[in-house]
Amino acid sequence: MSTANKSTVTTFPAIAMRGIVMFPSMILHFDVGREKSILAIKEAMKKDQLIFLVAQKDYTVEEPQKEDLYKVGVVAKIVQLLNSGSNGLRIMVEGVYKASITDITSFSPYMECTVKSLSDSQRTNVPSDVEEAMVRAVTDSFEIYCDLVPKMPKEIISSVLSQKTAKGLFDKIVQNLYLPVEDKQVLLEEKSLYNRLQILVEILQHETAVLTWERDIYDQVKDQMDKNQRDYFLREQMRVISEELGEGDNPQEESSEYAEKIEGFTNMPEETKEKLLKECERLYRTPSQSQEGQIIRTYIETCIELPWDEMSKEQADVARGERILNRDHYGMQKVKERILELIAVRKLAPDIKGQILCLAGPPGVGKTSIAKSVAAALNRKYVRISLGGVRDEADIRGHRKTYLGSMPGRIINAMKQAGTRNPVILLDEIDKMGADYKGDPSAAMLEVLDSEQNFAFRDHYIEVPFDLSEVLFITTANDASAIPRPLLDRMEIIEMGSYTREEKWNIAKKHLVPKQLKRHGISAKELKFSKDGLYALIDGYTREAGVRTLEREIAHICRKIAKKLVEDEIKSFTVTEKNITEVMGIVRYLNDGVRQADEVGVVTGLAWTSVGGETMEIETAVLPGTGKVQITGQLGDVMKESAQIAVSYVRSIAEDYGISTDFYKKKDIHIHAPEGAVPKDGPSAGVTMVTAITSALSGIPVRKDVAMTGEVTLRGRVLPIGGLKEKSMAAYRYGVKTVFIPEENKKDLEEVDNVVKDHITFIPVSHVSDVLKGALAHSPSSKRKKPTPPSTAPIENAPVKIDSISIQ
């Protein structure tokens, strides 16, 4: 082998090595593929077989330049040359000496470098024991490194550990270990053997630390993979066992099906999709028979069943709507007009939201059925939610799914039942909701009935927002005043008053009778109702604002006649005024109408109840005594105060009506409201009590065909009242000809039915003196022709004693 002298400068063909650093006295096999490198090898073979090998800084560079190469390399001798196929060569080289590049004379057709030989430093100041310690350190680091390297050949380990000299140990380690190019290049360029060993120890310790971390990471990954494989294996076993036992699908298949359905929804918010997909992942990892799996499965199914994309095709046709409303209901002109307005607006502005109607009126007037007709007129699905007696907020919002037996609230259940995003939902009896320690359901309804909030209604069970803005909510109530004010503020009130006698007759003839005949299997030929027969049934056997009792009585007649038809007693029957008692028994309500004569101390008042208007007679008796005032008839506190005000006002006008000014000392006054078992309250009987007391004390009779309503003050002013429509209906049924009403209620006469206004004269009054003037049968026998205005009449300050009698 030829060697170079020190500081010899020679020119050699050169090869840029990719990822390999050559050392002196190192034998190396490698493949050559680049054309320039092959030409350099061939050129070296023509001469003395010496070639310069230098490492590239970046192995990805195909055409390296001077700056891409390290400066120090090795002059090597080509020992063996073989063709490796595909125009490549495989060579074996042996390192001769280190050299540094002084110049690159050519890059084409092959790289040629002028190099200067380098020699290692022969002198050292390191003591022998220090060098021995370094050798041991290198050996120990190498052994630790070998323990961490997987499948390290034993031959290499033996050859390294068998070295006795520091140089031999170094050469064996760098020749047989895979180290980064940068680290090997540092070792190649270092001249001092001791320093090379020190650097080698640092490199081995660094590699040992990296390999330790790699092993830890690998162990963790392996453990996780083993666990996942074990879980997968067990799940597959469970699936096969479940299929053999016939216990249904496995969670993996179910979760995939659920995820596919969730991804298929177009109108489902992304937030909701993400949450449901996470639940699907949880279901995937849950055993099929676990309790948690059942909870997750039920939750996902509930959310999927909601109508995220389904919409009914609305038909905003006013003519069609009017035809349906007239077909299903008689009368109700104001309600029908409002519904038709709603349909017309829907036609012009299909996207309008926030229309919430409240149908308020006595029972049996058709509030619930009108909502069903609205749904039919708009071609929407109809769902009814009964709120009567609801006291738990969870009934509206649902329960958290973490609780055992949890479920969605009534609103979400109604949406599932409807199957569309735009149904008509009837919230029936909204005034009957209550509150207790479980919460206030009316507060939960605030979000449901608010168009600014219900587009993102959150049920406690589903925990994701659901859009209720497309829903048309219709509520019903018997008493609108019982609805909490914030809730009432979100609704438009449509009053549905009592039916007149004529309306009940038309409803019975067109709707109730055909319905009950069909239900009982009786033909129209077998059972007929004459006009006077229906009127007799309405007047003598029902006393209600609606027609519910009337329908039950018609059903009663149908059952009676069905029995006779089956027993062949009759072939047909016609209900008339004369024979109605044969099937209905004695008349229940004797409508005597107005009193037969004018009476002293008896006045007909008008009252409002939740089932409609009623007439209420106030009777007053004056007895010798000590000025005690007794009130009976289950009157409330407000009504008792009205009686006290009435007595005080009568004292102020006593002289004008020929009444003794000291009657409050020598006379006892007993005020009674008949039907004592029925509680009564309210201020609207004030004018009635003033009239009754004045009549009783003065002896002037009250006209028999007069009724009145209104609150009275100490100065005699008549204040407005509510429920005028229902009260006027009661006066009409009673046969009253004249009704005194407060002046401020004059505007409410527009709501009174025309048939009532045709038969009753309404007299608006602002002062009770006008009531007395029109209600008393004749003027008082007084020196004055006209009563002194109450503003100038003296009011004595003597107290009036009120005794309250409780009637059980």
CATH architecture of the largest domain: 2-Layer Sandwich
Class per helix and strand makeup: alpha/beta
Largest sheet: 8 strands, mixed
Could you tell me the mean pLDDT? Answer: 83
Low-confidence stretches: 1-6, 782-808
Subunit organisation of the chains: single chain
Total strand segments: 25
CATH class of the largest domain: Alpha Beta
Overall, the morphology is: elongated
Radius of gyration: 53 Å
Number of domains: 5
Catalytic activity: Hydrolysis of proteins in presence of ATP
EC number: 3.4.21.53
Subunit structure: Homohexamer. Organized in a ring with a central cavity.
Binding site for ATP: 361-368
Please provide a written account of the structure:
ATP binds at residues 361-368. It comes from Fumia xinanensis. There is one protein chain. The protein folds into five domains: 9-118, Roll (Archaeosine Trna-guanine Transglycosylase, Chain: A, domain 4); 251-305, no CATH class; 318-495, P-loop containing nucleotide triphosphate hydrolases (Rossmann fold, 3-Layer(aba) Sandwich), CATH 3.40.50.300; 501-584, Orthogonal Bundle (Helicase, Ruva Protein, domain 3), CATH 1.10.8.60; 602-804, Ribosomal Protein S5, domain 2 (2-Layer Sandwich), CATH 3.30.230. Mean pLDDT is 83; it is low at 1-6 and 782-808. It contains 26 helices and 25 strands. Helices cover 41% and strands 18% of the residues.
